[in-house]
Specification:
2 copies of one chain form a homodimer.
Chain A: H1 7-16, H2 19-27, E1 33-34, H3 35-42, H4 46-58, E2 62-67, E3 70-75, H5 79-101
Chain A binds a DNA duplex (30 and 30 nucleotides) through α3 and α4.
DNA sequence: TACTTATATGCTTAGTTGCTCATATTGTAA
DNA sequence: TTACAATATGAGCAACTAAGCATATAAGTA
């Protein structure tokens, strides 16, 4: 293992730590999709979305295949959804506690 | 909910996505610790560690209390460890697949 | 062949992050 | 009070990130 401890874990989290990228992952929850479906769903610049997709693929979170003109992306390991879900639960608890403090 | 979807989830992941911060969380797995124990364990600059601790607290991942001169930090929600563990599992699978491709 | 559609990429710019050094703050002890 | 120990913070800098625009590549169609 080169370098400091946990660099790979850190990189994985970093890859997920962007609103657009999480939104992409959510879109891919129910199966693979092509860029031409992802871009309009996100309402972001095509080049922007393409970069986020490329990053997620580079980190091994997504994989892609070509189908004619279309590039189809899918999530490699469904446990990334566990990550997102757990994060939401942590946040929900956090907010509930803050809310209680105000009462 | 202001702004784009998933900004809070993204921020949470971002807070965790640094090797030093993950190392801090690992150190706190078995209970609270003061900065004076954390800094030597990490072998990093005191000011550097302090900033990472401050960031984790600002994001609600850590909480702190004072005990005399010492500042003691602890993990607020143990589910952050689930996040780290799941990340490791994802990485392990990812590496195993790469390894198999080389055989 | 030329044209079109789908996607990726080079370039630039603005904003962010992480680090270090030095200093400030807070609490304890003499 | 002064001195010290533990922690936090301001300033400055290098490195990185995300976004947009324009352009390039790739694959299909006429």
């Amino acid at each position: 293992m080169p370098g400091p401890k946990f660099i790979y874990e850190a990189e994985l989290f970093k890859a997920i730590s962007h609103p657009t990228r999480i939104e992409i992952l959510q879109l891919l929850r129910d199966g693979e999709k092509c860029v031409c479906d992802i871009v309009p769903a996100l309402e972001k610049e095509q080049s922007n979305v393409s970069r986020h997709l490329g990053l997620l693929r580079k980190e091994g979170i997504l994989s892609s295949r070509k189908d004619g003109l279309k590039m189809i992306y899918r999530v490699e390991d469904p446990r990334v959804f566990e990550l997102i879900d757990t994060a939401r639960e942590i946040l929900r608890k956090c907010w509930e506690e803050k809310r209680e403090m105000l009462l």
